[in-house]
Amino acid sequence: MIIDVHGHLGPWFFWPSAGTAADNISAMDAAGIEIQLVSSVEAVNYDPHAGNHSLVQAITGQPRLKGLFVIDPRDLASAEHQLAELLPTGLFVGVKIHTHYSATPAGSPAMADALRLCASANLPALVHTWGHEILDLATTVESVDGARAIAGHMGGPDWHLAPEAVARSERLWIEPCYSRPDAGRIRWVLDRIDPRRMLFGSDSTLIDPGFALGSFQAARLTADEERLIMHENAQSLFSL
User: Fold this and answer.
1) Into how many domains does the chain fold?
2) 3 in a domain, yes or no?
3) Could you give the CA distance from residue 116 to residue 53 in angstroms, rounded to a whole number?
4) Burial of 64 (0-12, 13-18, 19+ CB in 10 A)
5) Strands (E), 102-223
6) How far apart are CA 117 and CA 190, in angstroms?
7) What is the pLDDT of residues 1-49, one digit of tens each?
8) Do 209 and 172 form a contact (C-beta atoms < 8 A)?
9) Mind giving me the DSSP string for 25-45?
10) Nearest by Cα to 33 from 239, 204, 217, 228
11) Which of 124, 132, 144, 187 could form an SS bridge with 148, CB 3.0 to 4.6 Å?
């Protein structure tokens, strides 16, 4: 079983695509993915309020697609109000925060406030990390009682900082999808951390899931690592 914790739903602005739930399901079927956690492309890139509402419509009746509620830390009042409205739908299992698109550094007070909101709703947050900010996110998570976060992309080009990041907080997990297949990256990190701290993510539909799957195949996971990373860690963290 494979659970993908880093997916998107909706049309992208740089190629013609309908961006429907059927597109996600088709890609999941081809990759052997059973469940995918998705954030709205519209919410991440343009308008969180409109995008979160659109996602509700898109994934209603789609039990294999679970929602990630997008928060822009610059407008937490609006996010808190909408979260109270949409969380009772049962469609959202976590939160997505993009540090760059929201112009909110991982180590900023605004990020801490956003994670505090997530913690109050008992929702883990998938946070975009790129470079040194993976360490900043770990420090912020540790400073907020009850906060749980996944470092999306595992810091990108600074993936070698992942072991230090998870050592800073027991409430930080890492998800290593990345557009550049650095040789040995996942195996190097797994040799230095508990596999219970890593989750599978693909960045689909921005990137084909086969790219992430190939990276994990190259890491030559043990049976225990595969079981934990591919589904058990996600099941536990997101109560799936």
Assistant:
1) 1
2) no
3) 22
4) middle
5) 125-128, 149-152, 172-175
6) 31
7) 999 999 999 998 877 677 999 999 999 999 999 999 999 999 999 999 9
8) no
9) HHHHHHHT--EEEEEEHHHHH
10) 204
11) 124
Which CATH number characterizes residue 93's domain? 3.20.20.140
* pLDDT tens, residue by residue, 163-208: 999 999 999 999 999 987 788 999 999 999 999 999 999 999 999 9
Of the candidate ranges 78-82, 132-136, 177-181, 200-204, the one whose mean pLDDT is the lowest: 177-181
Q: Find, among 121, 117, 29, the residue nearest to 76 by Cα.
A: 117
Q: Which two tokens stand for residue 84?
A: 């109270």
CA 173 to chain CA mean position, Å? 10
Q: Which domain holds residue 189?
A: 23-67+74-238
Tell me the whole-structure pTM to 2 decimals: 0.97
Integer-rounded Cα Rg, in Å, for the chain is 16
Nearest one of 42, 44, 39, 90 to 69, comparing CA atoms: 39
CB 189 within 8 A of CB 198: yes
What's the CA angle centered on 150, arms 130 and 61, to 5 degrees?
Answer: 115
For the chain, report the end-to-end CA distance as a whole number of angstroms: 13
Q: What is the DSSP letter of 198?
A: B
Bond into 205 cis (ω within 30):
yes
Residue 96 lies in a domain: yes
